[in-house]
Structure formats: C-alpha cells, structure tokens
Amino acid sequence: MRSLVLLFMMAVKTRVARSKLLKPGTARLVATGFLVCGILLGIFDAPAYADRILSRARFFGKITDFQFHRSFLAIPYRLGLDIQGGAHLLYQADLGAIPSGERAASMDAVRDVVERRVNLFGVAEPLVRVEKSGGDWRLSVELAGVKDISSAIKLIGETPYLEFKEERSPDERDTILEGQKKGEYPMEDPYFIPTKLTGRSIKKAEVIFDPTTYKPEIGLELTGEGAQLFSEITKKNIGKRLAIYLDGAPISAPVVQQEITGGKAQITGAFTPEEAKALVGRLNSGALPVPIKLIAQETVGASLGEESLARSVYAGMIGFAAVAIFMILWYRLPGMVAVAALLLYAAIMLAVCKLIPVTLSVAGIAGFILSIGMAVDANILIFERMKEEMRAGKTLEEAIREGFGRAWTSIRDSNASSLITAAILYWFGASIVRGFALTLAIGVLVSMFSAISVTRTLLLAIMIRPLQRVRFLFLSGIAK
User: Fold this and answer.
1) Which of 150, 147, 155 is nearest to 306 (CA)?
2) ω before 76 within 30° of 0 (cis)?
3) Distance between CA atoms of 364 and 349, rounded to whole angstroms?
4) What is the distance between the alpha carbons of residues 144 and 239, in angstroms, rounded to a whole number?
5) Mean residue pLDDT across the chain
6) How far apart are CA 439 and CA 368, in angstroms?
7) Which residues pair with 204 in a beta bridge?
8) Residue 456: closest CA among 392, 381, 394, 393
9) Average pLDDT score over residue span 94-105
10) Which of 451, 473, 429, 445 is nearest to 131 (CA)?
11) Which of 15, 52, 63, 89 is the most buried (most CB within 10 A)?
C-alpha cells in the first residue's frame, strides 16, 4: 500500500496542466500501441476465451493449434474464500504469560508454525493472518478448497503447546491449596509454576527408545538460548521435580539429579510408537510458542462461491454497460473514447491482479467496480472542461489541452482523498475490508493513467479539423 501511495505522489509531480500535446500522427502511433497492449492484456487476462476466438478464426490455419491457456500466460487468479469456497478458522491466542513487548513477535511465530503445518498437509495457498482487536490477539486461517470444516480443523491439528514447569516451594503450595478451599486461586496450579522454557526453544525432536524397556520416548534438541535456559533451570532445581506439560496436561515430572548442559532433553511417557512418531512430527513442524483456542469456524461451499462470483461478474458487466451507454449518449465521440480507455483500464487492472497477485474476494471485486466509476468521474470532469473551452471559441487542440490541464487539479485531489481513505481501511480494517481497500487503491492509480494518458492520446489521434464540421460529436447532451 505504501508503494501505491508513492506511485501516486510521483504522478502528482507530473506536469499535466500545460504539457505539450502530441501531434496527431504521433498520437495515432501511440494509440495503436495502446490498442496492441489492450489486445495482449486481454489475452493474458482471459487466455481460455482467447483460445475460443482463435479456434474460430480459420484463416490462421495451423496457428490455431496453439493454446494460450496452456502457455506461460495461464496464470490463475487468486480467488478469495467467499468465491472459491473453503473453510475459515479463527483462533484466540493466550498471551498472558508473554511480555507486552514480545507479543507481536510471538504471534508472528505462531503464524509461521500454522503455515508450516498447513503446508505440510498440502493445502494450496493457505492464508494465515495475525489480527489484533483491542487487547486481543487472534489468528485467522483461510483454507481455500476445503469443503469439510472438520477436515480443515484436522489439517491444522491440535498443535502441541509444550512447556516446562518447576516445582513450587512447600509454603507456596500450601498457601494456594488453602486458598482454593476458600474459593481463591481457582485456576492456579498449586504444584508447579511455569518457566520461560517452552516449545519455541525446540530445535529438533526425534523418536528414541529406552535401552532397558525399549519404550518409545521423545528426544529434544534445544536451541542455543533454550539450552542455556534449560541449564539454569536444572541447576537451581536439583533434587526437585521438573514437570513437562503438553497442551496443558502433565506428561512427565522427573526429579532433577544434576545440572543438564548440552541442550539435550527427553520426554518420557506412556507413548505408543505411533503416538511418539505423530508427536515428533507435530513438534518438528512447529511447537506453538503460545497456546491458541478455536473460537469461530465457517464453511463456504464451492457452489455458493461460484454463485457469488457469477453474480459479481454479472453486476460488473451490467454496471460497465450502463456507464458506457451513458457516456456515449451524453458525450458522443469523447464518450466513445472514454469507453475505449475504460476497456484498457479493465485489462490493466485484471493483469495487475494476476501478477501481484491480489486475492479477488467479493469485497475486492466491489472495489474494482467502484474504481470504474471513479475513472468515469475523471473523464466527466475533463469533458466538461473541454466543452467550456470549445464554447469559448477555442480550437479543438486548445480545448483538449486546457480541458485536461484545468481538470487535473480536481482529479488529483479527489483521487488523493480516495487513496488516503483506502490506506486507512487497509491498515486498520479487517481482512474483508483490506481486500476492498487494496483493489480500490490500485484501481484509482490505474484510472488516473487511463483518464489522463489514454483518453487524451485517443482524442488527439481522432482530432479532425475544422471544428465546425464535428461540433455535434464533441458537445454533450442526448439532443442537439
């Protein structure tokens, strides 16, 4: 979003007001270039439809064997969950034990762990985002193409939260137990207290077997920081129990015999070989640095998504057709030029959405359609200015120059306000609002190019003298 604003600021610096106009011959050459670019962008945007047109063009002969949708042009659009269908899961993170300055980094670590876990199970292009609302930290997971929400939850799995706890002193333990009898400390563990050593200190996990009993155990290799912390914990707890908790439940509480250095640890318990292997896989894919809880889940069926896409595209086509009819009836020849510029604008927008790529949700498509209206608004400002200059007796070339120059300030200011609004929505809005804001911002920038550069070039390319012969084509209104 920052790069989009920077691009806009660069565009503002362009001298539009009194810039030298292209000669008609040069303008026609540039307009031809726009036409070629529009055709190429159309093929890139919809290669399957280009293949249909090409297959019906018999005069191409053997060239019809070439298929655009099987070439490098076949880059798919990234469709949002509300269009493609899938599952949306929302998790609440418990950051009570994390210092406020480390919470953002901890949530980033949680996001990375969940992404690795989802990728491990082969979900295509999962969308995992950290969201903050007030003092609450949440993790939003969108899994496109997953039809059954129970399978989506299973894909993420009960991600293990591993923590090491040291034994409380007898006085502290007795105080908590007595308080719990009176209704105090209801959620407090009277026997163990958490340490800073958690699953995020694990570098590697593997299945090992006890040489005496041959029972499976979990061998842990800690990170450098984790090894140092583990050494300090075992040193001060010699002769005491050090409990290992997994997902809030104790699985082992051995007595520390001596300080343990070297960054190695073991988890013993009643594991079957299959359970030990599964736990190792979960730990290696990432042990959560903080616990998370599923608080909301939603499923969007593929049929509902296809219906949303069809309705959105249909609404966009109807809106574009209505705008085109109005522009042609009211502004005549400039209106036809504006429609051509809008077609190129749409082709550029779709190409940008493919290349970035922009996730096309229903809200994003709404932002795209809204930006079409803003592009038309820029053309209307320009054409009205041109009409005033022509009525003042100026030549067509002078009217084009003055019309674009004097309308530029209004176009710049309105688009600047739209970009500021889009930036605010993008940085502070929810995910669905961010999709709308992003497509709106991109659309505003592209519409500035289409309204200023493309429309002006096309008008110069079709400029006819003397003006008296074509006055009807350049004045507005349905009736003369």
Assistant:
1) 147
2) no
3) 12
4) 52
5) 78
6) 6
7) 221
8) 381
9) 83
10) 429
11) 89
Q: What is the DSSP string of 352-370?
A: HHHHTTPEE-HHHHHHHHH
pLDDT at 435 over 50: yes
Angle, in degrees to the nearest 10, between helices 24-45 and 47-56: 100
Section 352-358 average pLDDT:
84
User: How far is it, in rounded angstroms, from Cα 311 to Cα 322?
Assistant: 16
This prediction has a pTM of 0.61
Domains and CATH numbers, the chain: 2-46+301-474 (1.20.1640.10), 86-299 (3.30.1360.200)
**Of residues 91 and 283, more confidently modeled:** 91
- Whether 436 shows a pLDDT value over 80: the answer reads yes
- State pLDDT tens for residues 288-330: 777 888 888 877 766 656 777 778 778 878 888 888 898 888 8
Rg (CA), the chain: 32
- Give me the pLDDT at residue 420, please: 92
Query: Which residues, listed in sequence order, are joined to residue 344 by a DSSP beta bridge?
Result: none
Q: Are strands 292-300 and 162-167 parallel, antiparallel or unpaired?
A: unpaired
d(CA 390, CA 205): 79
The tokens of 254 are what?
């051995």
Strand order of the sheet with strand 242-246?
Answer: 192-198, 162-167, 242-246, 249-252
Position 364: which residue type?
G
Q: If we measure between CA atoms, which residue out of 294, 291, 346, 323 comes closest to residue 161?
A: 291
Residue 439: predicted pLDDT: 87
CA angle 185, 191, 196 (to 5 degrees): 90
Q: What's the rounded Cα separation, in Å, for the pair 66 and 241?
A: 72
Q: Does the structure show a pLDDT above 80 at 132?
A: yes
Instruction: Determine the Cα–Cα distance for residues 303 and 123; give it in Å rounded to an integer.
Output: 19
Tokens representing residue 105 in the block: 């980094």
Beta bridge partners of 143: 87
Considering only CA atoms, which of 56, 79, 155 is closest in space to residue 114?
155
Torsion angles phi and psi, residue 453, rounded to 5: -80, -50
Q: Which residues, 6 or more positions from 477, have their beta carbon under 8 angstroms from its beta carbon?
A: 330
Q: Which amino acid is present at 209?
A: F
The 10 Å Cβ neighbour count of residue 349 is 24
pLDDT of residue 478: 47
| pLDDT tens string 108-127 | 888 887 887 776 555 656 78
347 Cβ contact list (under 8 Å, min separation 6)? 38, 41, 42, 45
**Residues listed for the chain:** 480
